[in-house]
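tool_call: predict_structure(chain=1)
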Amino acid sequence: MPLPLMPKATAVWLVDNTSLSFDQVAAFCGLHPLEVQGIADGEVAVGIQGMDPVTSGELTRAEIERCEADPTAHLATAKSNLPQPTKRTKGPRYTPVAKRQDKPDGIYWLVRHHPELKDSQVARLIGTTKTTIQAVRERSHWNSPNIRPRDPVLLGLCSQVDLNAAVEKARKAAEKAGITLPKPEGEVEQPVVHASATADDPFALENFGLRKSGND
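tool_result:
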């Protein structure tokens, strides 16, 4: 089933304007149910303006009402006469010139929010190199002072489906290897910062959700 043009914005609207379950919204928008719950709790997609899928022709009001009455039902995308985009063929990911400058921001967001992803997975999602990823991770990138974490899906660097698939694959690999993954936001206990995560390693501090003191 094709996903909405703006999955998170659509999810925001559905959460705010319907009584659909988190699972129904997640399935329609290609998100994880916990991510939809985070939207409802105001912890995810903060500042994103909701987009009405009925107005955009992606969903009908009758379909929403049908699924509201039956929590086990799945939303069906409204039929459209518009031509569907063709699937991307195999090969190097093409990134428009205007978006290439956003790649470091997308990389920074991924290494902070999904540390379980391997560099090879990040490189495939963003369409970059391991050298660039390492430079962003170590804050040695030439533009480090201006790099800020931004969701690569919202930047248009990758799709939510590809990101979800990569995260799921990484988590399964971590579980198989016996590696404990970070708990969802809100359940994470205050970590112990080891000696290696000093003021000389700002990225390490930020990765633990800490900031340097103004007296440092």
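agent: The two ends are 53 Å apart (CA to CA). Proceeding to next step.
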